[in-house]
Amino acid sequence: MNPSTFSDWQARAAALVIEARAFIDGDARDARTGATFACVSPIDGRVLAQVADCGADDVDAAVAAARRAFDAQA
Questions:
Q1: Fewer C-beta neighbours within 10 Å, C or N terminus of the chain?
Q2: Which is it for strands 36-40 and 27-29: parallel, antiparallel or unpaired?
């Protein structure tokens, strides 16, 4: 196993792509309103991603999908 350097880890971290959509009913989706909010790094304050700012309609869709999945397994 090769030891990684700090710069190796920095390069890997910089290459990460953050999925910023909500995962509802097996799909990654934007919020129904299209609203987002900034996900900020606590280390340096930079914005890592604009994340889906889900509202009540999105929650209702997620709960309905969970109910269908639960009922299908019962």
A1: N
A2: unpaired
pTM over 0.85: no
**Most distant pair of Cα atoms in the chain: their distance:** 50
Instruction: Determine if residue 30 is left, alpha or beta; phi over 0 gives left, psi from -120 to 50 gives alpha, anything else beta.
Output: beta
Contact 62, 24 (CB under 8 A): yes
What is the spatial distance between Cα 5 and Cα 39, in angstroms, rounded to a whole number? 27
Q: Which helix (H) or strand (E) holds 58?
A: helix 56-73
CA angle 35, 38, 40 (to 5 degrees): 165
Per-residue tens of pLDDT for the chain, all 74 residues: 566 889 998 898 888 888 899 999 999 999 999 999 999 999 999 998 999 999 999 999 999 999 999 999 98
- Distance between CA atoms of 19 and 17, rounded to whole angstroms? 6
